[in-house]
Write a structure and sequence with these properties.
Blueprint (H helix, E strand, L loop, with lengths): L1 E13 L4 E14 L2 H7 L14 E11 L5 E9 L16 E14 L5 E15 L7 E15 L2 E12 L7 E12 L2 E12 L4 E9 L2
Antiparallel strand pairs: 1-2, 2-3, 3-4, 4-5, 5-6, 6-7, 7-8, 8-9, 9-10, 10-11
């Protein structure tokens, strides 16, 4: 598909950074498919007849442990609403989902001023989402992830492997290799990202982003 969208994210720290709430989603999306793809998906249109918007995601985080000697632990509870538009064009699904996870991280290397660091991190959790199967109305999956991140002065990088594994075996075993490179100048960050899909994730993506810190 020829697709462009505008994505917005708001993060609100709470309790001096020990907890936080994040709200994110696609504000607007433009797309164009071929007639062949339209027939394959049984979609109504090849272009949006009016404004299309995405689902709203709500995340909450809480830091359980912060220990330089052992590791850092964080738990999160997350919800995806069913507010996305253009179900008739197979853009978003009329199905909510939720997931819980535990993230652990430990610094392998870090100098005194924090200008150089290397960190190992992992994730384990549970993911549940509604389906259109009249017998099994939901699918449950194991969430997993592991990766490395680092920083050298104004340049930071991250690489990880993550995904989930459901029980229905109907395309519910996607996984992704993700790579991120960022350069920070004062309060401005230029971000380059590449995602490579494996197993049931059939897509790769490349993105360029600009972040302004206040």
């Amino acid at each position: 598909d020829k697709t462009s969208d505008l994505f917005a994210r708001l993060f609100i720290p709470i309790a001096h950074g020990k907890a936080g709430v994040e709200i994110a989603g696609v504000v607007t999306e433009n797309y164009e498919t071929t007639e062949a793809v339209k027939l394959e998906r049984r979609a109504a249109e090849t272009k949006p007849p009016f404004r299309c918007y995405g689902d709203v995601l709500i995340h909450s985080f809480y830091q359980v442990l912060r220990n330089d000697r052992w590791c850092d632990l964080m738990v999160s509870a997350n919800l995806k609403t069913a507010s996305g538009g253009r179900l008739a064009d197979a853009r978003y699904t009329d199905a909510a989902s939720y997931w819980f996870d535990l993230t652990a991280g430990r610094n392998l290397l870090q100098n005194a001023d924090g200008s150089a660091a290397l960190r190992l991190q992992g994730l384990l959790g549970f993911y549940c989402w509604m389906t259109n199967d009249p017998v099994y109305r939901q699918n449950d999956a194991l969430l997993f992830g592991a990766g490395l991140s680092g920083r050298l002065y104004n340049v930071s990088f991250a690489a990880d492997y993550s995904g989930f594994s459901g029980y229905k075996n109907t395309g519910d075993h996607p996984a992704t290799y993700r790579y991120k490179l960022e350069y920070e100048y004062r309060k401005n960050i230029l971000s380059l990202r590449f995602r490579y899909g494996v197993f049931d994730n059939l897509y790769d993506s490349f993105s360029v982003g600009y972040i302004r810190c206040f």
